[in-house]
Specification:
Elements: E1 2-6, H1 11-22, E2 26-31, E3 41-45, H2 54-57, E4 62-65, H3 80-98, E5 102-106, H4 118-131, E6 136-142, E7 145-146, H5 151-160, E8 165-168, E9 174-175, E10 178-179, H6 180-192, E11 199-203, E12 209-210, H7 211-221, E13 229-232, H8 234-244, H9 254-260
Parallel strand pairs: 1-2, 1-4, 2-3, 4-5, 5-6, 6-11, 7-10, 8-13
Antiparallel strand pairs: 9-12
Helix pairs in contact: 1-6, 3-4, 5-7
Domain NAD(P)-binding: 7-193
InterPro entries: ComplexI_NDUFA9_subunit, NAD(P)-bd_dom, NAD(P)-bd_dom_sf
Organism: Sulfobacillus thermotolerans
C-alpha cells in the first residue's frame, strides 16, 4: 500500500515508518526536516503550517497523521493551535481533495472536551475536525510512550541524576506508559485491516505507575537505587514556570505541569485485539 506518514521523522514516526517498511509498504514521510537519505522511503521536507498537500497526497491509500508538539514556541510560530488544529485541518482538507480514503490520526490520552490544558484542548479540537470528515478515520490516544529513547523518559533520567530529585506535586499521579513499538504495530495493522473505522481508541500499557514510581524506575535503570525524591508544591512550580516561560529553553511550562498532575490512565483495551502481548516498562526507555 501507499502510506504517507506526517511527522515521520519524529520519535513515534520513525518507529511507524520502520514497521511499515518491514511489511513492504511504500512509505512517504513528510516532515519539517529530512534526515540523511534513506533509500527505503521518500522524505519530503515541508513546513506543514503553510504547505499545500493535495498533489502530494494523490495516489495515497492511507495517511498516518502524527504531527504534534508538547511545548510551544510562539516566537517561531509554533503553537498548539497551529500545530494541532491548523495543520490537522490542512491534512484533512487535502486528503479529501486528493481522494485519500483512510486516515489514522494521532491524538493523546487525556484529550477531551473541557480539558484543563491547552495541549489537550487543541488535540480535542483537531479530533472534532477529523470526526466530521467524510473518510474512514481512526483516532488513537496513547499514554506516555517508552522505548527507543523516549524524550519524556530522557527528561526524567536527567532529573533522576540530581542529588535531590525534584518531583512535581505529590508524586502520586497515575500514568500508564505504553511501548512505542506497540503503538507502531497497532497503527500498521490499522493501515492493513479495516478495523476501528470511525472509532477513537485509548491506549495504555499493562501497568500503572505513580510519578514517584516512574522516577525510581528510571533511576534504577541508570544504576541508582532509592534516590531521594523532593516533592515541589504545584502552586510554587506554576509560579516558577510562569516566570520561566520568558526564558529560552526553560525545562517546563505551566501547561505541562497541569498535565503531569492529572491522571493519565485508561480502561480501554481494544488495542490488545491487535497486540495481545503488550510490552512492559523495562530497561529500554
Amino acid at each position: 500500500m501507499q502510506v504517507l506518514v506526517t511527522g515521520g521523522t519524529g520519535y513515534l514516526g520513525q518507529a511507524v515508518s520502520e514497521a511499515l517498511i518491514r511489511r513492504r509498504h511504500t512509505v512517504t514521510v513528510v516532515a519539517r526536516h529530512c534526515p540523511p537519505t534513506d533509500s527505503r522511503v521518500q522524505c519530503r521536507a515541508i513546513d506543514m503550517r503553510t504547505a499545500s498537500f493535495t498533489e502530494l497526497f494523490r495516489g495515497t491509500d492511507v495517511i498516518v497523521h502524527l504531527v504534534g508538539i508538547i511545548q510551544e514556541h510562539p516566537a517561531a510560530g509554533i503553537t498548539f493551535q497551529v500545530m494541532h488544529e491548523q495543520v490537522t485541518q490542512h491534512v484533512v482538507d487535502a486528503a479529501l481533495s486528493a481522494g485519500v480514503p483512510r486516515l489514522v490520526h494521532m491524538s493523546a490520552l487525556g484529550t477531551r472536551e473541557g480539558a484543563i490544558s491547552q495541549y489537550h484542548q487543541t488535540k480535542w479540537n483537531a479530533e472534532q475536525y477529523v470526526r466530521k470528515a467524510p473518510l474512514a478515520w481512526t483516532i488513537l490516544r496513547p499514554s506516555l510512550l517508552f522505548g527507543g529513547g523516549s524524550p519524556f523518559f530522557a527528561t526524567l533520567a536527567a532529573q533522576a541524576r540530581l542529588p535531590l530529585v525534584p518531583v512535581p506535586g505529590s508524586g502520586q499521579t497515575l500514568f500508564q506508559p505504553i511501548a512505542r513499538a506497540d503503538v507502531a504495530e497497532v497503527i500498521v495493522q490499522m493501515v492493513e485491516k479495516d478495523v476501528a473505522v470511525h472509532e477513537t481508541w485509548e491506549m495504555g500499557g499493562p501497568d500503572r505507575y505513580t510519578m514517584d514510581a516512574l522516577y525510581r524506575h528510571v533511576a534504577h535503570v541508570n544504576g541508582r537505587k532509592n534516590p531521594p525524591l523532593v516533592h515541589i508544591p504545584l502552586p510554587l512550580l506554576m509560579l516558577m514556570a510562569e516566570v520561566g516561560q520568558r526564558i529560552p529553553k526553560f525545562p517546563v511550562s505551566t501547561d505541562q505541569l497541569r498535565m503531569l498532575n492529572e491522571a493519565n490512565i485508561t480502561q480501554d483495551e481494544r488495542w490488545r485485539q491487535l497486540v495481545p502481548v503488550a510490552q512492559t516498562l523495562g530497561n529500554d526507555l
